[in-house]
Design brief:
The chain is mainly beta. It has no helices and 11 strands. Strand 4 and strand 5 form a beta hairpin.
């Protein structure tokens, strides 16, 4: 919530969810991600857009931004999303993604895939006071080729071999990665949510 609306994200097969004027009003794959802006006063839908490519896409985390926009993260199997920030191309069969929209959901400010040669899913996202974003999710990729972990000490190698581990990554407000790390132990680990708390 950023004073102008409550944001919701998920996945949809519906061909008529988003209106004309949205960033993406028509489906491109079997399932697309979507984000909706809802009035906190009466529950009316203020804006909606689809977001996806030719394969499966699903939004799983959402946060509002101080300028009125919104960021979502999720999982994608599509290799044709239009991203120009940190990672512009799909790496494994499924990658996490992060995408920032303007307040009207009519424009993508920046977006990025995030993943190695195995599979990733973005599960949660939050914004910090400086406009940067922190995304958390799950990965089964080793820290080679595309590096899940960067600019950290502890958490630079995947715990538990190539089993699923959590990951956390921070991007600046232009979509460049500041740092990334694994999070987990010697067995199977997943992350399902992230939240930033501010000192009032």
């Amino acid at each position: 919530y950023n004073g102008s609306g409550v944001f919701v994200t998920g996945g949809t097969d519906s061909p008529d969810l988003a209106p004309t004027g949205a960033f993406q009003s028509k489906p491109k794959g079997a399932t697309d991600a979507f984000v909706a802006k809802i009035s906190p006063n009466d529950g009316s839908v203020l804006a909606t857009t689809l977001f996806g490519g030719s394969d499966f896409d699903e939004g799983k985390g959402v946060c509002s931004l101080s300028g009125g926009g919104v960021a979502i993260c999720g999982t994608t199997f599509s290799n044709d999303l239009s991203f120009s920030a940190f990672q512009p191309q799909l790496s494994g069969s499924a990658d996490a993604f992060v995408c920032v929209f303007d307040k009207d959901l009519s424009k993508v400010v920046w977006g990025s895939y995030y993943g190695g040669r195995a599979d990733e899913e973005g599960r949660g996202i939050c914004s910090l006071d400086d406009g940067s974003l922190v995304m958390a999710g799950n990965t089964s990729s080793p820290n080679s080729a595309f590096r899940i972990a960067e600019n950290v000490g502890q958490g630079s190698t995947p715990p538990g071999g190539l089993q699923t581990s959590g990951f956390v990554v921070r991007f600046n407000n232009q979509g460049s990665r500041i740092w990334g790390r694994y999070l987990g132990g010697d067995a199977f680990d997943t992350i399902t949510c992230i939240q930033a708390f501010r000192n009032e």
